[in-house]
Amino acid sequence: MALEIDQSKGVLFPNDYKTEGDNQPDFRGEIELPPGYGYTGPKENIPEGISPTRLRIVVWDNTSKAGKPYRSIEVNTPKPPKQKEADSSYYKPTSTTTSNTTTSKTELPF
């Protein structure tokens, strides 16, 4: 189930997959912006039916050369979920021919 986020608000969670020395972000989360967010024209010109924009946020803890801590932020659109492609060769029965007999690999001798 997807996390419900109020429009114009976001959430950040510590990155549980972060390990010492890797370049994974320290925090990650999402923000949802209302339809037309950032549009400076009249509100009546925003087309109806536009869905809110959901953005992915990642944050890294850093230290400046002067030793002051700071956080860097990256915002982008979420990646679509990976869809498992069905391996079409898995479903195709294959046949082998040995000494004048044809045996299907999908037929088992027991």
Question: What does the secondary structure layout of this molecule look like, with pairings?
Answer:
Elements: E1 9-14, E2 27-33, E3 53-63, E4 69-76, H1 88-91, E5 95-98, E6 101-104
Antiparallel strand pairs: 1-2, 2-3, 3-4, 5-6
What key phrases describe this protein's structure?
4-stranded antiparallel beta sheet, 36% strand, flat, two-stranded antiparallel ribbon, mainly beta, 110 residues
Structure characterization notes:
- It is a single chain.
- With 110 residues, the protein is mostly beta strands.
- It has one domain (1-80).
- Helix content is 4%, strand content 36%.
- The chain is built from one helix and six strands; from the N terminus they run E-E-E-E-H-E-E.
- The strands form two sheets. Strands 1-2-3-4 form a four-stranded antiparallel beta sheet, with no helix packed on it. It has a two-stranded antiparallel sheet with strand order 5-6.
- The protein is flat and about 50 Å long.
- 1% of the residues are buried.
Estimated share of beta-strand residues: 35-45%
- Average per-residue pLDDT, rounded, comes to 76
Coarse structural class: mainly beta
What is the gyration radius calculated from CA atoms? 26 Å
Number of domains: 1
Largest sheet: 4 strands, antiparallel
Q: Helix content range of the residues, please? A: under 10%
Order of strands, widest sheet: 1-2-3-4
Quaternary structure: single chain
- Total strand count, please? 6
